[in-house]
Amino acid sequence: MPSVAAEPGPFVFDLDSTVLVVIDMQRDFLMAGGFGESLGNDVSQLRRTIEPLAALMAAWRAAGLPIVHTREGHLPDLSDCPPAKLSRGAPSMRIGDPGAFGRILIRGEYGHDIVDELQPLDGEPVVDKPGKGAFYATNFAETLDKYGAKRLIVTGVTTEVCVHTTVREANDRGYECLVLADCVGSYFPEFQQAGLKMIAAQGGIFGWVASSPELIAALQESK
Ligand code: TIU
Fold this sequence. Notes:
With 223 residues, this protein is an alpha/beta fold. It is built from nine helices and ten strands.
């Protein structure tokens, strides 16, 4: 079985039971002038993940392996958005308000969709989620079951928010998660660092951490 050099030790995976998960690589979070930047965030911290992630997705697809994408967002009538989430943030920057790329984090709007560089291929599932974690109020678990998934390669944004929530949820459900440091991003460098450390600490309390070139190398060796 392929093995990836990782913290806290090698991550060994099976090509038949491992899914690449790409979390919330949406224009609202990543594009200059979008929602993320309007909140005062530095989107370059997230955008550095696009290139390595595109390379990893190409290698993963070339190996014939499955990718599942997620998007955070809400129905146009906001009926799936808890009032406590909706009332967060300054007026004019709230979910559902008009933003540079359509209504912020609303399904069907341009800004809610995935950046051009990482668009899903036909047939790759896209799981729409109202929360930070991919399991809550979605068909993510059923989607993973269809692929017989036991292990997840976790990528996307943001490290300490949707990536962490999903990894924690997955860990409790029995999945082994490998998080790729160069393919996850946070607006806050200190959260990126601490978020990655928290995953692999204590013997891998939530999972493993490696970089995408190491995973791509392991894939190529397994051919
Ligand atoms: N996808 C995700 O992480 N949603 C967020 O709202 N992240 C922030 O860091 N704000």
